[in-house]
Amino acid sequence: xxxCATDWSRLTPPEQVRHLELEGFVVIPxxxxxxxxxxxxxxxxxxxTVPTDYSENQRSAKDVQWTDSPSSIDTIxxxxxxxxxERLFGDxxxxxxxxxxxxxxxxxxxxxxxxxxxxxxxxxGPGASAPRLVRVLYYLDDLSPERAPFKVVPRxxxxxxxxxxxxxxxxxxxxxxMVTCRAGSAAIINQCVFHANFPNSSQxxxxxxxxxxxxxxxxxxxxxxxxxxEKVARLPPHVRRLFGNLNTRKIDYHVGNRPPNMPTSAAxxxxxxxxx
Length: 276
Description:
By secondary structure, the protein is of the alpha+beta class. Helix content is about 20%, strand content about 20%. It has helices at about 15-25, 35-45, 70-75, 80-90, 230, 235-240, and strands at about 1-5, 25-30, 50, 60, 95-105, 135-140, 150, 175-180, 185-190, 195, 205-215.
């Protein structure tokens, strides 16, 4: 097995952006304090979970933001993560989901897949058609090789080949990489990278809080149901601001070939954005 040996603690913020943009993922260690981690684990233990269609041991709870889980909800607006994402996107953020995922002992592993379906899908609906989106995977338990570690095919999001059709799924891949990390760390993934997790062959559960964000400009191609306004109003202010209209799409459909007042610089596409 190809075990990732990157020392994530040594990456500077520009290097973190580079790794995410080029490899399709990055790990930011120790984002959750021990106190926050313990509180989230306690809250998630109270939530009812439902199994997937392929295993009783892979379970989830959706819409954590509407549950009685204050520490978990507060984490949606975690300052260190939001600062990184605002630097990454250079735009307002829209949170599109918050899910608790539980891989119990005996979980057989998830198929390699992407979270991006440019025309929508039965699983994810039209929301998966947003052209830019990342998912922040907060690990609530240590990831060891036996405890459902993260699996990824680096740079697969860059391929133009039909093998990279985002609707495809793979049981495994010869160049897949295993990523382990400490509890409280987060893997941030490009929605187009092929990723999964390995089986849980340990004797302990592996929990994860997965929160998806996109830049405000990158709305879905079709209308999606918006957040219930009465529920959004009850969120803490620093979290509420991330729950803007899910159909927000800041584009100019009628842009001309040579519009007036075009800018002559754009730091967000500088090749030097990866440099300190």
